[in-house]
Amino acid sequence: MNYLSTSRWIRALCIVLGVMSSAWVPQAHAERIKDLAGIQGVRQNQLLGYGLVVGLDGSGDQTTQTPFTVQSIISMLQQLGVTIPVGTSLQLKNVAAVMVTTSLPAFAQPGQTLDITVSSMGNAKSLRGGTLLMTPLKGADNQIYAMAQGNVLVGGVGAAANGSKAQVNHLGVGKISGGATVERAVPNSVAQGATIQLELNTSDFSTASRVVDAINRRFGPDTAAAMDGRVIQVKAPTSTDQRVSFLGNLENIDVTPAQMAAKVILNARTGSIVMNQAVTLETCAVAHGNLSVVINTDNAVSQPNALAAGQTAATANSTVTITKDPGQLLMLKAGVSLSEVVKALNAIGATPQDLLSILQAIKASGALRADLEII
Asked: Which residue among 91, 135, 260, 309 is buried most deeply as judged by most CB within 10 Å?
Protein backbone atom coordinates (compact mmCIF):
# COMPACT_ATOMS: atom_id res chain seq x y z
CA MET A 1 0.00 0.00 0.00
CA ASN A 2 1.65 3.26 -1.11
CA TYR A 3 1.61 6.49 0.90
CA LEU A 4 -1.05 8.16 -1.28
CA SER A 5 -3.55 5.30 -1.05
CA THR A 6 -2.87 4.96 2.68
CA SER A 7 -3.54 8.66 3.20
CA ARG A 8 -6.83 8.45 1.32
CA TRP A 9 -7.85 5.40 3.35
CA ILE A 10 -6.97 7.17 6.59
CA ARG A 11 -8.88 10.33 5.67
CA ALA A 12 -11.97 8.29 4.75
CA LEU A 13 -11.87 6.29 7.98
CA CYS A 14 -11.23 9.44 9.98
CA ILE A 15 -14.35 11.08 8.52
CA VAL A 16 -16.48 8.02 9.28
CA LEU A 17 -15.23 7.72 12.85
CA GLY A 18 -15.59 11.48 13.32
CA VAL A 19 -19.26 11.27 12.42
CA MET A 20 -19.66 8.26 14.71
CA SER A 21 -17.97 10.08 17.59
CA SER A 22 -19.93 13.32 17.25
CA ALA A 23 -23.34 11.86 16.46
CA TRP A 24 -23.22 8.55 18.28
CA VAL A 25 -25.40 8.74 21.34
CA PRO A 26 -26.82 5.29 22.14
CA GLN A 27 -30.59 5.57 22.21
CA ALA A 28 -32.96 2.85 23.30
CA HIS A 29 -35.57 1.92 20.74
CA ALA A 30 -38.24 -0.76 20.71
CA GLU A 31 -38.00 -3.85 18.54
CA ARG A 32 -40.50 -6.59 17.85
CA ILE A 33 -40.11 -9.92 19.64
CA LYS A 34 -40.08 -11.41 16.12
CA ASP A 35 -36.75 -9.65 15.54
CA LEU A 36 -35.28 -10.54 18.93
CA ALA A 37 -36.24 -14.19 19.29
CA GLY A 38 -37.40 -17.30 17.49
CA ILE A 39 -39.83 -20.05 18.41
CA GLN A 40 -38.26 -23.37 19.33
CA GLY A 41 -39.00 -25.92 16.61
CA VAL A 42 -39.63 -23.30 13.91
CA ARG A 43 -36.43 -23.58 11.89
CA GLN A 44 -34.97 -24.44 8.52
CA ASN A 45 -33.47 -27.85 7.76
CA GLN A 46 -30.55 -28.32 5.37
CA LEU A 47 -30.96 -30.74 2.47
CA LEU A 48 -28.20 -32.27 0.36
CA GLY A 49 -28.09 -34.43 -2.74
CA TYR A 50 -25.68 -35.84 -5.33
CA GLY A 51 -26.61 -35.68 -8.99
CA LEU A 52 -25.53 -35.27 -12.59
CA VAL A 53 -25.75 -32.28 -14.90
CA VAL A 54 -25.96 -33.20 -18.58
CA GLY A 55 -26.12 -31.25 -21.84
CA LEU A 56 -22.92 -29.27 -21.30
CA ASP A 57 -21.06 -27.92 -24.32
CA GLY A 58 -17.84 -29.85 -23.83
CA SER A 59 -17.21 -28.22 -20.44
CA GLY A 60 -18.01 -31.22 -18.25
CA ASP A 61 -15.80 -33.43 -16.09
CA GLN A 62 -12.71 -35.07 -17.51
CA THR A 63 -13.79 -38.63 -16.85
CA THR A 64 -10.23 -39.94 -16.71
CA GLN A 65 -9.68 -37.85 -13.58
CA THR A 66 -13.16 -38.13 -12.05
CA PRO A 67 -14.04 -41.85 -11.94
CA PHE A 68 -17.08 -41.19 -9.73
CA THR A 69 -18.74 -39.40 -12.67
CA VAL A 70 -18.36 -42.49 -14.87
CA GLN A 71 -19.63 -44.76 -12.07
CA SER A 72 -22.68 -42.53 -11.60
CA ILE A 73 -23.49 -42.58 -15.32
CA ILE A 74 -23.19 -46.38 -15.52
CA SER A 75 -25.40 -46.82 -12.43
CA MET A 76 -28.02 -44.43 -13.84
CA LEU A 77 -28.10 -46.18 -17.22
CA GLN A 78 -28.49 -49.58 -15.57
CA GLN A 79 -31.54 -48.31 -13.69
CA LEU A 80 -32.97 -47.15 -17.02
CA GLY A 81 -32.38 -50.59 -18.57
CA VAL A 82 -29.23 -49.76 -20.53
CA THR A 83 -26.32 -52.17 -20.08
CA ILE A 84 -22.77 -50.97 -20.70
CA PRO A 85 -20.40 -53.73 -21.90
CA VAL A 86 -17.65 -54.57 -19.44
CA GLY A 87 -14.38 -52.83 -20.23
CA THR A 88 -16.01 -49.97 -22.15
CA SER A 89 -14.14 -46.70 -21.71
CA LEU A 90 -16.52 -43.77 -21.56
CA GLN A 91 -15.14 -40.45 -22.77
CA LEU A 92 -17.83 -37.98 -21.76
CA LYS A 93 -17.37 -34.22 -21.93
CA ASN A 94 -20.96 -33.10 -21.54
CA VAL A 95 -21.63 -34.48 -18.05
CA ALA A 96 -20.63 -33.13 -14.63
CA ALA A 97 -21.06 -34.58 -11.15
CA VAL A 98 -22.61 -32.01 -8.80
CA MET A 99 -23.79 -31.49 -5.24
CA VAL A 100 -27.26 -29.99 -4.82
CA THR A 101 -28.08 -27.99 -1.70
CA THR A 102 -31.11 -26.16 -0.35
CA SER A 103 -32.93 -25.33 2.88
CA LEU A 104 -36.31 -26.79 3.79
CA PRO A 105 -38.28 -23.98 5.52
CA ALA A 106 -40.44 -24.54 8.56
CA PHE A 107 -43.95 -25.86 7.86
CA ALA A 108 -43.06 -26.78 4.23
CA GLN A 109 -45.64 -29.12 2.77
CA PRO A 110 -45.47 -31.70 -0.07
CA GLY A 111 -45.81 -30.01 -3.45
CA GLN A 112 -44.10 -26.78 -2.40
CA THR A 113 -41.14 -25.75 -4.56
CA LEU A 114 -37.70 -24.68 -3.34
CA ASP A 115 -34.80 -22.83 -4.95
CA ILE A 116 -31.65 -24.96 -5.16
CA THR A 117 -27.93 -24.39 -5.66
CA VAL A 118 -25.97 -26.73 -7.94
CA SER A 119 -22.19 -26.92 -7.41
CA SER A 120 -19.62 -28.85 -9.42
CA MET A 121 -17.59 -31.37 -7.40
CA GLY A 122 -15.30 -32.52 -10.22
CA ASN A 123 -13.17 -30.60 -12.72
CA ALA A 124 -15.95 -29.29 -14.96
CA LYS A 125 -15.08 -25.94 -16.51
CA SER A 126 -18.66 -24.66 -16.56
CA LEU A 127 -22.23 -25.72 -15.73
CA ARG A 128 -23.71 -23.14 -18.10
CA GLY A 129 -26.51 -24.53 -20.27
CA GLY A 130 -26.68 -27.85 -18.39
CA THR A 131 -29.70 -29.73 -17.08
CA LEU A 132 -29.80 -31.31 -13.65
CA LEU A 133 -31.24 -34.83 -13.71
CA MET A 134 -33.67 -35.96 -11.03
CA THR A 135 -31.80 -35.81 -7.73
CA PRO A 136 -33.14 -36.86 -4.31
CA LEU A 137 -32.40 -34.39 -1.53
CA LYS A 138 -31.87 -35.87 1.93
CA GLY A 139 -31.84 -34.43 5.43
CA ALA A 140 -29.54 -35.22 8.36
CA ASP A 141 -31.66 -38.31 9.12
CA ASN A 142 -30.89 -39.71 5.63
CA GLN A 143 -34.56 -39.46 4.63
CA ILE A 144 -35.60 -37.99 1.27
CA TYR A 145 -37.50 -34.72 1.71
CA ALA A 146 -37.41 -33.26 -1.82
CA MET A 147 -36.64 -34.10 -5.45
CA ALA A 148 -34.68 -31.72 -7.68
CA GLN A 149 -34.46 -31.32 -11.44
CA GLY A 150 -34.26 -28.52 -13.98
CA ASN A 151 -32.12 -26.25 -16.14
CA VAL A 152 -29.10 -24.75 -14.37
CA LEU A 153 -28.77 -20.98 -14.58
CA VAL A 154 -25.26 -19.54 -14.25
CA GLY A 155 -25.52 -15.76 -13.98
CA GLY A 156 -23.03 -13.00 -14.82
CA VAL A 157 -21.14 -14.67 -17.64
CA GLY A 158 -17.71 -13.19 -18.51
CA ALA A 159 -17.56 -10.12 -20.75
CA ALA A 160 -14.92 -8.91 -23.22
CA ALA A 161 -13.59 -5.36 -23.22
CA ASN A 162 -10.88 -3.80 -25.44
CA GLY A 163 -9.93 -7.18 -26.82
CA SER A 164 -9.35 -8.75 -23.41
CA LYS A 165 -11.67 -11.26 -21.78
CA ALA A 166 -12.72 -10.58 -18.19
CA GLN A 167 -14.36 -13.31 -16.12
CA VAL A 168 -16.78 -11.81 -13.59
CA ASN A 169 -18.21 -14.90 -11.96
CA HIS A 170 -17.60 -18.53 -11.03
CA LEU A 171 -19.02 -20.88 -13.64
CA GLY A 172 -18.88 -23.98 -11.44
CA VAL A 173 -21.96 -22.97 -9.43
CA GLY A 174 -25.50 -22.34 -10.68
CA LYS A 175 -29.04 -22.01 -9.37
CA ILE A 176 -32.43 -23.39 -10.31
CA SER A 177 -35.39 -21.30 -9.22
CA GLY A 178 -38.13 -23.61 -7.93
CA GLY A 179 -35.97 -26.55 -8.95
CA ALA A 180 -36.94 -28.85 -6.06
CA THR A 181 -40.34 -30.17 -5.02
CA VAL A 182 -41.01 -31.04 -1.38
CA GLU A 183 -42.02 -34.69 -0.96
CA ARG A 184 -42.15 -34.98 2.82
CA ALA A 185 -43.13 -32.56 5.61
CA VAL A 186 -41.01 -32.18 8.73
CA PRO A 187 -43.05 -32.71 11.90
CA ASN A 188 -42.81 -29.94 14.49
CA SER A 189 -43.90 -29.56 18.09
CA VAL A 190 -45.25 -26.00 17.92
CA ALA A 191 -48.88 -27.15 18.03
CA GLN A 192 -48.24 -29.64 20.83
CA GLY A 193 -48.22 -29.17 24.58
CA ALA A 194 -49.46 -26.34 26.76
CA THR A 195 -46.38 -24.13 26.34
CA ILE A 196 -43.96 -22.90 23.70
CA GLN A 197 -40.32 -21.92 24.04
CA LEU A 198 -38.99 -18.57 22.84
CA GLU A 199 -35.25 -18.49 22.14
CA LEU A 200 -33.48 -15.12 22.06
CA ASN A 201 -31.09 -14.65 19.15
CA THR A 202 -28.43 -13.49 21.63
CA SER A 203 -28.23 -14.56 25.26
CA ASP A 204 -28.89 -11.61 27.55
CA PHE A 205 -30.51 -11.77 30.98
CA SER A 206 -31.72 -8.16 30.89
CA THR A 207 -33.39 -8.56 27.50
CA ALA A 208 -34.97 -11.86 28.57
CA SER A 209 -36.43 -10.17 31.64
CA ARG A 210 -37.83 -7.31 29.54
CA VAL A 211 -39.42 -9.76 27.07
CA VAL A 212 -41.08 -11.61 29.95
CA ASP A 213 -42.45 -8.35 31.39
CA ALA A 214 -43.79 -7.25 27.99
CA ILE A 215 -45.57 -10.56 27.38
CA ASN A 216 -47.11 -10.61 30.85
CA ARG A 217 -48.36 -7.04 30.43
CA ARG A 218 -49.98 -7.99 27.11
CA PHE A 219 -51.50 -11.39 27.98
CA GLY A 220 -51.70 -11.34 31.78
CA PRO A 221 -49.50 -12.34 34.75
CA ASP A 222 -47.65 -15.67 34.70
CA THR A 223 -48.03 -16.08 30.93
CA ALA A 224 -44.26 -16.03 30.40
CA ALA A 225 -41.31 -17.06 32.56
CA ALA A 226 -37.59 -16.89 31.79
CA MET A 227 -35.80 -20.23 32.01
CA ASP A 228 -32.34 -18.66 31.57
CA GLY A 229 -30.69 -15.85 29.62
CA ARG A 230 -31.91 -17.20 26.27
CA VAL A 231 -35.01 -19.41 26.71
CA ILE A 232 -38.44 -18.07 27.74
CA GLN A 233 -41.35 -20.39 28.39
CA VAL A 234 -44.77 -19.06 27.33
CA LYS A 235 -48.20 -20.54 28.05
CA ALA A 236 -50.19 -20.81 24.82
CA PRO A 237 -53.74 -21.90 23.84
CA THR A 238 -54.14 -25.57 22.98
CA SER A 239 -56.39 -24.95 19.97
CA THR A 240 -54.33 -24.80 16.77
CA ASP A 241 -56.21 -21.80 15.37
CA GLN A 242 -56.04 -19.88 18.66
CA ARG A 243 -52.34 -20.72 19.04
CA VAL A 244 -51.50 -19.33 15.59
CA SER A 245 -53.37 -16.11 16.41
CA PHE A 246 -51.67 -15.95 19.82
CA LEU A 247 -48.19 -16.35 18.31
CA GLY A 248 -48.94 -13.71 15.69
CA ASN A 249 -49.84 -11.20 18.41
CA LEU A 250 -46.89 -12.24 20.56
CA GLU A 251 -44.33 -11.74 17.77
CA ASN A 252 -45.47 -8.15 17.23
CA ILE A 253 -45.05 -7.01 20.84
CA ASP A 254 -42.51 -4.19 21.07
CA VAL A 255 -39.64 -4.64 23.52
CA THR A 256 -36.72 -2.32 24.22
CA PRO A 257 -33.67 -4.63 24.31
CA ALA A 258 -30.85 -4.06 26.79
CA GLN A 259 -27.67 -2.43 25.52
CA MET A 260 -25.34 -5.07 24.17
CA ALA A 261 -21.80 -5.58 25.40
CA ALA A 262 -19.21 -3.31 23.83
CA LYS A 263 -17.40 -4.94 20.92
CA VAL A 264 -14.66 -3.93 18.49
CA ILE A 265 -14.17 -5.77 15.19
CA LEU A 266 -10.80 -5.56 13.42
CA ASN A 267 -10.26 -6.73 9.85
CA ALA A 268 -6.58 -7.67 9.67
CA ARG A 269 -6.58 -7.67 5.85
CA THR A 270 -8.14 -4.27 5.18
CA GLY A 271 -7.51 -2.48 8.47
CA SER A 272 -11.22 -1.75 8.93
CA ILE A 273 -12.38 -1.04 12.49
CA VAL A 274 -16.04 -1.31 13.52
CA MET A 275 -17.46 -0.59 16.99
CA ASN A 276 -21.01 -1.44 18.04
CA GLN A 277 -21.25 1.42 20.56
CA ALA A 278 -19.18 4.19 22.19
CA VAL A 279 -16.24 2.18 23.51
CA THR A 280 -14.05 3.87 26.13
CA LEU A 281 -10.59 3.21 27.54
CA GLU A 282 -9.00 2.97 30.95
CA THR A 283 -5.85 4.95 31.68
CA CYS A 284 -2.91 3.41 29.87
CA ALA A 285 0.34 4.24 28.10
CA VAL A 286 1.35 2.91 24.69
CA ALA A 287 4.60 3.37 22.76
CA HIS A 288 4.59 2.46 19.07
CA GLY A 289 7.39 3.63 16.80
CA ASN A 290 7.51 7.43 16.64
CA LEU A 291 3.81 8.00 17.36
CA SER A 292 2.86 10.25 20.28
CA VAL A 293 -0.67 11.40 21.10
CA VAL A 294 -1.91 13.11 24.28
CA ILE A 295 -5.69 13.16 24.87
CA ASN A 296 -7.29 15.41 27.47
CA THR A 297 -10.91 14.85 28.41
CA ASP A 298 -12.12 18.45 28.52
CA ASN A 299 -13.90 20.88 26.23
CA ALA A 300 -11.05 23.37 25.75
CA VAL A 301 -9.03 23.65 22.56
CA SER A 302 -5.34 22.89 23.16
CA GLN A 303 -2.68 24.34 20.85
CA PRO A 304 0.79 22.67 20.91
CA ASN A 305 3.89 24.86 20.90
CA ALA A 306 5.67 25.64 17.65
CA LEU A 307 8.57 23.25 18.32
CA ALA A 308 6.31 20.23 18.76
CA ALA A 309 5.35 20.20 15.05
CA GLY A 310 1.91 18.98 16.05
CA GLN A 311 -1.74 19.56 15.20
CA THR A 312 -4.74 20.35 17.36
CA ALA A 313 -8.22 18.89 16.87
CA ALA A 314 -11.20 19.70 19.07
CA THR A 315 -14.39 17.73 19.67
CA ALA A 316 -17.45 18.22 21.82
CA ASN A 317 -16.11 15.87 24.50
CA SER A 318 -12.33 16.01 24.29
CA THR A 319 -9.31 17.73 22.77
CA VAL A 320 -6.68 15.68 20.97
CA THR A 321 -3.14 17.01 20.52
CA ILE A 322 -1.10 15.00 18.02
CA THR A 323 2.68 15.00 17.60
CA LYS A 324 5.38 12.83 16.10
CA ASP A 325 8.03 12.81 18.80
CA PRO A 326 10.23 9.69 19.07
CA GLY A 327 10.56 8.34 22.56
CA GLN A 328 7.29 9.76 23.93
CA LEU A 329 4.38 7.63 25.05
CA LEU A 330 0.83 7.67 23.76
CA MET A 331 -0.96 8.83 26.93
CA LEU A 332 -4.64 7.87 27.11
CA LYS A 333 -6.73 9.04 30.05
CA ALA A 334 -9.63 7.08 31.50
CA GLY A 335 -12.97 7.62 29.80
CA VAL A 336 -11.53 8.56 26.40
CA SER A 337 -13.57 7.23 23.49
CA LEU A 338 -11.84 4.68 21.29
CA SER A 339 -13.04 6.56 18.21
CA GLU A 340 -11.05 9.60 19.41
CA VAL A 341 -7.91 7.48 19.69
CA VAL A 342 -8.37 6.07 16.19
CA LYS A 343 -8.96 9.57 14.80
CA ALA A 344 -5.78 10.81 16.47
CA LEU A 345 -3.71 7.96 15.06
CA ASN A 346 -5.17 8.39 11.58
CA ALA A 347 -4.43 12.12 11.61
CA ILE A 348 -0.68 11.55 11.97
CA GLY A 349 -0.50 8.92 9.24
CA ALA A 350 -0.76 5.65 11.16
CA THR A 351 -1.14 2.68 8.81
CA PRO A 352 -3.85 0.02 9.23
CA GLN A 353 -1.26 -2.35 10.69
CA ASP A 354 -0.25 0.33 13.22
CA LEU A 355 -3.87 0.61 14.33
CA LEU A 356 -4.24 -3.15 14.69
CA SER A 357 -1.03 -3.49 16.70
CA ILE A 358 -1.87 -0.63 19.06
CA LEU A 359 -5.44 -1.77 19.72
CA GLN A 360 -4.29 -5.34 20.35
CA ALA A 361 -1.75 -4.05 22.87
CA ILE A 362 -4.37 -1.88 24.61
CA LYS A 363 -6.72 -4.86 24.86
CA ALA A 364 -3.97 -7.10 26.20
CA SER A 365 -3.24 -4.56 28.95
CA GLY A 366 -6.88 -4.64 30.07
CA ALA A 367 -7.47 -0.97 29.26
CA LEU A 368 -9.97 -1.58 26.45
CA ARG A 369 -13.45 -2.05 27.92
CA ALA A 370 -14.80 -4.12 25.04
CA ASP A 371 -14.53 -7.51 23.39
CA LEU A 372 -11.91 -7.42 20.61
CA GLU A 373 -12.54 -9.71 17.63
CA ILE A 374 -10.09 -10.03 14.74
CA ILE A 375 -11.42 -11.38 11.44
From this structure: 135
